Amino acid sequence: MEPGQEDKARLDRGTMSAPSFAGVGAVREAHRFDEARLTDWMAAHVEGFAGPLTVEQFKGGQSNPTYRLSTPARQYVLRRKPPGDLLPGAHAIEREARAIAAVETTGFPVPHVYALCPDDSVIGTPFYVMAMVEGRIFWDAALPGEAPETRAAVYDAMNAAIARLHRIDPVAIGLGDYGRTSNYLARQIARWSRQYREDAAAGRDPYMDWLIEWLPAHLPANDETSLVHGDFRIDNIVFTHDAANIRSVLDWELSTLGHPLADFAYHLMMYRMPPLTIPGLACADLAALGIPGEHDYVAAYCRRTGRSGIADLDFYLAFNFFRFAAICHGIKGRIARGTAASSEAGRLAADFPVLAKLAWDQAKRAAS
Protein backbone atom coordinates (compact mmCIF):
# COMPACT_ATOMS: atom_id res chain seq x y z
CA MET A 1 0.00 0.00 0.00
CA GLU A 2 1.33 3.47 -0.92
CA PRO A 3 2.15 6.01 1.77
CA GLY A 4 -0.32 8.74 2.61
CA GLN A 5 -0.61 12.24 1.24
CA GLU A 6 2.37 14.52 0.89
CA ASP A 7 3.42 16.43 3.98
CA LYS A 8 3.65 19.96 2.62
CA ALA A 9 5.89 21.11 5.45
CA ARG A 10 8.57 18.68 4.28
CA LEU A 11 8.74 20.18 0.80
CA ASP A 12 8.57 23.77 2.02
CA ARG A 13 12.14 23.23 3.26
CA GLY A 14 13.19 23.33 -0.38
CA THR A 15 13.69 27.08 -0.11
CA MET A 16 16.81 26.63 2.01
CA SER A 17 20.04 28.15 0.72
CA ALA A 18 23.23 26.30 -0.25
CA PRO A 19 25.38 24.88 2.57
CA SER A 20 28.67 26.19 3.89
CA PHE A 21 30.61 23.10 2.85
CA ALA A 22 33.49 25.05 1.31
CA GLY A 23 36.74 25.83 3.06
CA VAL A 24 38.61 24.52 6.08
CA GLY A 25 38.70 25.24 9.77
CA ALA A 26 40.10 23.90 13.00
CA VAL A 27 39.91 20.15 13.47
CA ARG A 28 36.71 19.29 15.27
CA GLU A 29 37.07 17.84 18.73
CA ALA A 30 35.72 14.40 17.81
CA HIS A 31 38.16 14.11 14.88
CA ARG A 32 41.43 15.20 16.48
CA PHE A 33 44.47 12.94 16.50
CA ASP A 34 48.19 12.91 17.38
CA GLU A 35 49.67 15.16 14.69
CA ALA A 36 53.23 14.26 15.70
CA ARG A 37 52.56 10.60 14.94
CA LEU A 38 51.10 11.53 11.57
CA THR A 39 54.19 13.65 10.81
CA ASP A 40 56.45 10.67 11.55
CA TRP A 41 54.31 8.40 9.36
CA MET A 42 54.33 10.91 6.48
CA ALA A 43 58.12 11.20 6.66
CA ALA A 44 58.42 7.42 6.36
CA HIS A 45 55.78 6.80 3.67
CA VAL A 46 55.21 9.90 1.53
CA GLU A 47 57.96 10.60 -0.95
CA GLY A 48 59.25 14.17 -0.80
CA PHE A 49 57.48 15.00 2.46
CA ALA A 50 59.14 17.53 4.74
CA GLY A 51 57.55 19.18 7.76
CA PRO A 52 56.55 21.06 9.76
CA LEU A 53 52.93 20.00 9.29
CA THR A 54 49.76 22.04 9.85
CA VAL A 55 46.44 20.17 9.99
CA GLU A 56 43.01 21.68 9.23
CA GLN A 57 39.67 19.99 8.59
CA PHE A 58 37.47 20.51 5.54
CA LYS A 59 33.91 21.54 6.34
CA GLY A 60 32.60 18.96 3.85
CA GLY A 61 33.16 15.21 4.03
CA GLN A 62 29.86 13.78 5.23
CA SER A 63 31.04 10.20 5.53
CA ASN A 64 34.80 10.27 5.97
CA PRO A 65 36.51 13.15 7.81
CA THR A 66 38.80 14.98 5.38
CA TYR A 67 41.77 17.18 6.28
CA ARG A 68 44.13 19.61 4.57
CA LEU A 69 47.75 18.96 5.47
CA SER A 70 50.02 21.93 4.81
CA THR A 71 53.82 22.01 4.72
CA PRO A 72 56.18 24.77 3.55
CA ALA A 73 56.58 23.03 0.18
CA ARG A 74 53.14 21.59 -0.63
CA GLN A 75 49.69 20.66 0.54
CA TYR A 76 48.09 17.24 0.87
CA VAL A 77 44.62 15.86 1.63
CA LEU A 78 44.02 13.12 4.20
CA ARG A 79 40.82 11.07 4.28
CA ARG A 80 40.13 8.71 7.13
CA LYS A 81 37.46 6.46 8.52
CA PRO A 82 35.55 8.23 11.27
CA PRO A 83 36.07 7.14 14.85
CA GLY A 84 33.38 5.27 16.75
CA ASP A 85 31.01 2.41 15.93
CA LEU A 86 30.59 1.96 12.16
CA LEU A 87 28.11 -0.01 10.09
CA PRO A 88 29.65 -3.07 8.37
CA GLY A 89 31.04 -2.26 4.92
CA ALA A 90 30.73 1.51 5.34
CA HIS A 91 33.56 4.08 5.08
CA ALA A 92 35.60 1.99 2.65
CA ILE A 93 38.80 4.04 2.72
CA GLU A 94 40.96 1.23 1.38
CA ARG A 95 38.68 0.65 -1.63
CA GLU A 96 38.53 4.37 -2.35
CA ALA A 97 42.31 4.70 -2.45
CA ARG A 98 42.60 1.62 -4.67
CA ALA A 99 40.06 2.95 -7.15
CA ILE A 100 41.66 6.39 -7.43
CA ALA A 101 45.12 4.91 -8.00
CA ALA A 102 43.82 2.55 -10.70
CA VAL A 103 41.80 5.21 -12.52
CA GLU A 104 44.79 7.56 -12.52
CA THR A 105 46.62 5.15 -14.83
CA THR A 106 44.12 5.91 -17.61
CA GLY A 107 44.71 9.65 -17.50
CA PHE A 108 41.27 10.28 -16.01
CA PRO A 109 41.43 13.35 -13.75
CA VAL A 110 41.85 12.21 -10.13
CA PRO A 111 44.20 13.22 -7.31
CA HIS A 112 47.44 11.27 -6.99
CA VAL A 113 47.37 8.91 -3.99
CA TYR A 114 50.68 9.02 -2.11
CA ALA A 115 50.08 6.30 0.47
CA LEU A 116 47.46 4.27 2.30
CA CYS A 117 47.69 3.49 6.01
CA PRO A 118 45.49 0.55 7.11
CA ASP A 119 47.00 0.69 10.61
CA ASP A 120 44.62 2.39 13.06
CA SER A 121 47.39 2.91 15.61
CA VAL A 122 48.73 6.01 13.79
CA ILE A 123 45.75 8.40 14.03
CA GLY A 124 43.07 6.08 15.42
CA THR A 125 41.51 4.85 12.14
CA PRO A 126 42.81 3.84 8.69
CA PHE A 127 43.47 6.69 6.24
CA TYR A 128 45.13 7.64 2.99
CA VAL A 129 47.00 10.72 1.80
CA MET A 130 46.54 12.19 -1.68
CA ALA A 131 47.51 15.30 -3.58
CA MET A 132 45.73 18.58 -2.93
CA VAL A 133 44.27 19.67 -6.30
CA GLU A 134 43.74 23.42 -6.61
CA GLY A 135 40.84 24.74 -8.64
CA ARG A 136 37.17 25.68 -8.43
CA ILE A 137 34.40 23.64 -6.81
CA PHE A 138 30.81 24.64 -7.52
CA TRP A 139 28.44 23.87 -4.64
CA ASP A 140 25.28 24.88 -6.48
CA ALA A 141 24.34 23.14 -9.75
CA ALA A 142 22.80 26.40 -11.04
CA LEU A 143 26.26 28.05 -10.92
CA PRO A 144 25.03 31.40 -9.60
CA GLY A 145 27.03 34.39 -10.75
CA GLU A 146 28.54 32.60 -13.76
CA ALA A 147 28.06 33.55 -17.40
CA PRO A 148 25.81 31.32 -19.55
CA GLU A 149 28.80 30.21 -21.65
CA THR A 150 30.64 29.17 -18.47
CA ARG A 151 27.68 27.11 -17.33
CA ALA A 152 27.46 25.44 -20.73
CA ALA A 153 31.17 24.56 -20.60
CA VAL A 154 30.88 23.12 -17.07
CA TYR A 155 27.97 20.89 -18.02
CA ASP A 156 29.65 19.71 -21.20
CA ALA A 157 32.81 18.85 -19.24
CA MET A 158 30.83 16.89 -16.62
CA ASN A 159 28.92 15.01 -19.29
CA ALA A 160 32.13 14.10 -21.12
CA ALA A 161 33.82 12.98 -17.90
CA ILE A 162 31.11 10.58 -16.74
CA ALA A 163 30.81 9.16 -20.25
CA ARG A 164 34.59 8.65 -20.32
CA LEU A 165 34.51 6.95 -16.92
CA HIS A 166 31.90 4.46 -18.10
CA ARG A 167 34.06 3.54 -21.09
CA ILE A 168 37.06 2.56 -18.93
CA ASP A 169 37.76 -1.17 -18.97
CA PRO A 170 38.02 -2.14 -15.27
CA VAL A 171 39.89 -5.35 -16.07
CA ALA A 172 42.59 -3.42 -17.94
CA ILE A 173 43.35 -1.26 -14.88
CA GLY A 174 43.33 -4.07 -12.32
CA LEU A 175 39.78 -3.58 -11.05
CA GLY A 176 38.23 -6.69 -12.56
CA ASP A 177 37.57 -7.95 -9.02
CA TYR A 178 36.38 -4.59 -7.68
CA GLY A 179 32.78 -5.76 -7.49
CA ARG A 180 30.34 -8.32 -8.81
CA THR A 181 29.48 -8.08 -12.49
CA SER A 182 25.75 -8.72 -12.45
CA ASN A 183 22.54 -7.75 -10.66
CA TYR A 184 23.94 -4.42 -9.48
CA LEU A 185 20.56 -2.76 -9.00
CA ALA A 186 19.08 -5.67 -7.07
CA ARG A 187 22.14 -5.83 -4.82
CA GLN A 188 22.21 -2.07 -4.24
CA ILE A 189 18.51 -1.97 -3.38
CA ALA A 190 19.04 -4.81 -0.93
CA ARG A 191 22.12 -3.12 0.58
CA TRP A 192 20.53 0.27 1.16
CA SER A 193 17.28 -1.32 2.31
CA ARG A 194 19.22 -3.33 4.87
CA GLN A 195 21.20 -0.32 6.11
CA TYR A 196 18.00 1.70 6.38
CA ARG A 197 16.22 -1.04 8.33
CA GLU A 198 19.17 -1.77 10.63
CA ASP A 199 19.82 1.86 11.57
CA ALA A 200 17.13 2.07 14.22
CA ALA A 201 18.60 5.29 15.62
CA ALA A 202 17.51 7.19 12.48
CA GLY A 203 13.86 6.12 12.53
CA ARG A 204 11.56 5.04 9.69
CA ASP A 205 9.73 6.73 6.81
CA PRO A 206 6.58 5.44 5.02
CA TYR A 207 7.87 6.30 1.53
CA MET A 208 11.09 4.37 2.14
CA ASP A 209 9.12 1.41 3.45
CA TRP A 210 7.01 1.42 0.28
CA LEU A 211 10.02 1.80 -2.04
CA ILE A 212 11.78 -1.13 -0.40
CA GLU A 213 8.92 -3.29 -1.65
CA TRP A 214 8.35 -1.56 -5.02
CA LEU A 215 11.89 -1.21 -6.39
CA PRO A 216 12.94 -4.90 -6.47
CA ALA A 217 9.60 -5.80 -8.08
CA HIS A 218 10.18 -3.42 -11.03
CA LEU A 219 13.83 -3.94 -12.01
CA PRO A 220 14.70 -3.14 -15.67
CA ALA A 221 15.50 -6.16 -17.82
CA ASN A 222 18.87 -4.93 -19.12
CA ASP A 223 21.96 -5.58 -17.03
CA GLU A 224 25.30 -3.91 -17.78
CA THR A 225 28.55 -3.54 -15.89
CA SER A 226 31.17 -0.79 -15.88
CA LEU A 227 33.26 1.06 -13.34
CA VAL A 228 30.91 3.48 -11.56
CA HIS A 229 31.78 6.43 -9.34
CA GLY A 230 28.71 6.21 -7.13
CA ASP A 231 28.63 9.91 -6.14
CA PHE A 232 29.26 11.83 -9.36
CA ARG A 233 27.97 15.30 -8.43
CA ILE A 234 29.12 18.78 -9.39
CA ASP A 235 30.41 19.44 -5.86
CA ASN A 236 32.70 16.39 -6.10
CA ILE A 237 34.52 17.87 -9.11
CA VAL A 238 37.43 20.34 -9.17
CA PHE A 239 37.40 22.55 -12.26
CA THR A 240 40.11 24.75 -13.71
CA HIS A 241 39.86 28.38 -12.66
CA ASP A 242 38.29 29.30 -16.01
CA ALA A 243 35.81 26.40 -15.48
CA ALA A 244 36.48 25.07 -18.99
CA ASN A 245 38.01 21.76 -17.91
CA ILE A 246 38.00 19.28 -15.04
CA ARG A 247 41.13 19.02 -12.92
CA SER A 248 39.97 16.23 -10.63
CA VAL A 249 36.99 14.06 -9.68
CA LEU A 250 36.87 13.47 -5.93
CA ASP A 251 35.18 11.17 -3.38
CA TRP A 252 35.35 7.63 -4.75
CA GLU A 253 34.14 5.93 -1.58
CA LEU A 254 31.03 4.50 -3.26
CA SER A 255 32.80 3.42 -6.46
CA THR A 256 32.41 -0.18 -7.58
CA LEU A 257 31.56 -2.28 -10.60
CA GLY A 258 27.96 -1.51 -11.38
CA HIS A 259 25.34 -0.40 -13.86
CA PRO A 260 26.49 2.69 -15.79
CA LEU A 261 22.93 3.93 -16.33
CA ALA A 262 22.26 3.86 -12.60
CA ASP A 263 25.46 5.86 -12.08
CA PHE A 264 24.50 8.36 -14.77
CA ALA A 265 20.98 8.72 -13.35
CA TYR A 266 22.46 9.58 -9.94
CA HIS A 267 24.35 12.39 -11.66
CA LEU A 268 21.17 13.36 -13.53
CA MET A 269 19.22 13.76 -10.26
CA MET A 270 20.36 17.40 -10.19
CA TYR A 271 17.73 18.16 -12.84
CA ARG A 272 14.88 16.94 -10.60
CA MET A 273 16.35 17.98 -7.26
CA PRO A 274 14.82 21.05 -5.58
CA PRO A 275 17.07 23.57 -3.79
CA LEU A 276 17.74 21.46 -0.71
CA THR A 277 20.98 21.42 1.29
CA ILE A 278 22.69 20.17 -1.87
CA PRO A 279 20.73 22.34 -4.32
CA GLY A 280 19.40 21.11 -7.64
CA LEU A 281 17.86 22.56 -10.79
CA ALA A 282 14.18 21.66 -10.40
CA CYS A 283 13.15 25.31 -9.97
CA ALA A 284 15.71 26.86 -12.36
CA ASP A 285 15.18 28.56 -15.75
CA LEU A 286 17.72 26.43 -17.61
CA ALA A 287 17.46 28.26 -20.92
CA ALA A 288 18.16 31.61 -19.29
CA LEU A 289 21.08 30.12 -17.36
CA GLY A 290 22.66 28.53 -20.42
CA ILE A 291 22.41 25.04 -18.90
CA PRO A 292 21.28 22.25 -21.26
CA GLY A 293 17.88 20.76 -20.50
CA GLU A 294 17.58 17.25 -19.14
CA HIS A 295 16.63 15.78 -22.54
CA ASP A 296 19.66 17.34 -24.26
CA TYR A 297 21.98 16.32 -21.43
CA VAL A 298 20.82 12.72 -21.66
CA ALA A 299 21.21 12.81 -25.46
CA ALA A 300 24.81 14.08 -25.15
CA TYR A 301 25.70 11.22 -22.78
CA CYS A 302 24.09 8.73 -25.14
CA ARG A 303 26.08 10.06 -28.10
CA ARG A 304 29.30 9.78 -26.12
CA THR A 305 28.59 6.22 -25.01
CA GLY A 306 27.08 4.94 -28.26
CA ARG A 307 23.50 4.59 -27.00
CA SER A 308 20.27 5.30 -28.83
CA GLY A 309 18.56 6.32 -25.58
CA ILE A 310 17.87 5.26 -21.99
CA ALA A 311 14.83 3.12 -21.36
CA ASP A 312 13.52 3.03 -17.79
CA LEU A 313 15.14 6.37 -16.93
CA ASP A 314 12.47 7.16 -14.33
CA PHE A 315 13.19 3.87 -12.57
CA TYR A 316 16.91 4.65 -12.41
CA LEU A 317 16.05 8.05 -10.95
CA ALA A 318 13.64 6.52 -8.41
CA PHE A 319 16.39 4.12 -7.34
CA ASN A 320 18.90 6.95 -6.97
CA PHE A 321 16.61 9.24 -4.97
CA PHE A 322 15.93 6.22 -2.74
CA ARG A 323 19.67 5.57 -2.43
CA PHE A 324 20.44 9.21 -1.69
CA ALA A 325 17.67 9.25 0.89
CA ALA A 326 19.20 6.15 2.48
CA ILE A 327 22.59 7.89 2.62
CA CYS A 328 21.01 10.88 4.39
CA HIS A 329 19.21 8.44 6.69
CA GLY A 330 22.64 7.05 7.56
CA ILE A 331 23.89 10.56 8.33
CA LYS A 332 20.90 10.99 10.61
CA GLY A 333 21.90 7.78 12.36
CA ARG A 334 25.50 8.94 12.74
CA ILE A 335 24.25 12.14 14.38
CA ALA A 336 22.33 10.02 16.88
CA ARG A 337 25.46 7.93 17.54
CA GLY A 338 27.77 10.96 17.71
CA THR A 339 29.94 9.97 14.72
CA ALA A 340 28.75 12.49 12.08
CA ALA A 341 31.76 13.88 10.19
CA SER A 342 30.47 17.28 9.06
CA SER A 343 29.05 20.34 10.77
CA GLU A 344 26.38 20.37 8.02
CA ALA A 345 25.27 16.82 8.78
CA GLY A 346 22.13 18.00 10.54
CA ARG A 347 20.82 19.74 7.44
CA LEU A 348 21.43 16.70 5.24
CA ALA A 349 19.72 14.49 7.79
CA ALA A 350 16.75 16.87 7.73
CA ASP A 351 16.56 16.44 3.93
CA PHE A 352 15.97 12.70 4.35
CA PRO A 353 12.13 12.72 4.33
CA VAL A 354 12.05 15.13 1.37
CA LEU A 355 14.32 12.85 -0.64
CA ALA A 356 12.25 9.81 0.28
CA LYS A 357 9.16 11.58 -1.06
CA LEU A 358 11.02 12.56 -4.26
CA ALA A 359 12.03 8.92 -4.75
CA TRP A 360 8.40 7.89 -4.45
CA ASP A 361 7.45 10.57 -7.03
CA GLN A 362 9.94 9.13 -9.54
CA ALA A 363 8.61 5.64 -8.91
CA LYS A 364 5.09 6.84 -9.71
CA ARG A 365 6.38 8.34 -12.97
CA ALA A 366 8.09 5.06 -13.84
CA ALA A 367 4.89 3.14 -13.19
CA SER A 368 2.66 5.43 -15.25
Arrangement of strands in the largest sheet: 1-2-3-4-6-5
The dominant shape is: globular
Mean pLDDT: 89
The percentage of residues in β strands lies in: 5-15%
| Ends distance | 16 Å
Radius of gyration, in Å, reads 20 Å
Q: How many strands?
A: 10
Which runs of at least 5 residues are low in confidence (pLDDT < 50)?
A: 1-21
- Helix and strand content put the structural class at alpha+beta
- Secondary structure: helix percent: 25-40%
Question: Tally the helices: what do you get?
Answer: 11
- Secondary-structure element sequence? HEHEEEHEEHHHEEEEHHHHH
Largest sheet: 6 strands, antiparallel
Task: Outline the structure in words.
- With 368 residues, the chain is α+β, with helices and mostly antiparallel strands.
- 39% of the residues lie in helices and 11% in strands.
- The chain is built from eleven helices and ten strands.
- It has helices at 8-12, 35-45, 93-104, 148-166, 184-198, 206-214, 260-268, 286-289, 294-305, 313-337, 345-367; strands at residues 24-25, 54-58, 66-70, 75-80, 113-117, 127-131, 226-228, 237-239, 246-249, 256-258.
- The strands form three sheets. The chain has a six-stranded antiparallel beta sheet with strand order 1-2-3-4-6-5, with helices on one face. Strands 7-10 form a two-stranded antiparallel sheet. A two-stranded antiparallel sheet has the order 8-9.
- The longest helix has 25 residues, at 313-337.
- Residues 1-21 have low confidence and may be disordered.
